[in-house]
Amino acid sequence: MKADIAYWPAALRLDQAASYCGLSVDTFKDVCPVKAIEFTQSTRGHRFLRVRLDAWLASLDKNDPETGSVRRTIAQMVYGPSEPIRRKRRLS
User: Do the Cβ atoms of 15 and 36 come closer than 8 Å?
Assistant: First the structure.
């Protein structure tokens, strides 16, 4: 779906948010900790802020020394915890 959209809106529907993250809707629902904001009381009015999705995706980056020292992969989020990957922080 990414190729079909010329730009990504700031607030995404569930299907758009899943596509933006490169996940199926079901996997997105299972693993994404970002909560939708409510424009209306209907579930059709729920939107995911792109900036929050970007922050979540960046937090999964194992190459970033600034984010936490314990990482979980998407597979661990879907299929349950296994031994967490521990990283040493770089000393400045």
Answer: no
d(CA 57, CA 7): 18
**What would the 3-class secondary structure string for 21-90 be?**
HCCCHHHHHHHCCCCCEECCCCHHHEEEEHHHHHHHHHHCCCCCCCCCCEECCHHHHHHCCCCCEECCCC
- DSSP, collapsed to helix, strand or coil, labels residue 1 as coil
75-92: pLDDT as tens digits? 666 777 666 556 566 665
Query: Which contacts of 18-23 are long-range, i.e. CB under 8 A and separated by 24 or more positions?
Result: 20/50, 20/53, 21/53, 21/57, 23/74
Adjacent-strand bridge partners of 90: none
- pTM for the whole thing? 0.64
Question: Is there a contact between 2 and 19 (Cβ–Cβ < 8 Å)?
Answer: yes
